[in-house]
Write a structure and sequence with these properties.
Blueprint (H helix, E strand, L loop, with lengths): L13 H13 L4 H17 L3 H6 L3 H10 L5
Helix pairs in contact: 1-2
Amino acid sequence: MLNGERELPQGGMDWYFESLALCKIVAPENYPRLKEILLQHAEYRMQRKEPNMEMYYPRLDEILTYLENYDFKV
C-alpha cells in the first residue's frame, strides 16, 4: 500500500483499521504515510457515497485518535 503497488480494496472497512493497527505495531515509522494514503482513499469512497464508508466517516477522527492512543503492548 505504501508504494502504490497494491490496489486498495473498495468494499468493507475492516481491512482499513486492521492495516493501520498492524502498521502501528510492526512499522510505526510508516504509520503517518499509510494514514495519509488511507484518508485519501476514504475521501474518494465518500465521494462515491459508499455505504460502508458513510457509516464510519463521521467518526473517523475519533476512531483514529483511539487507535493512535491505544497501547498495543498490553
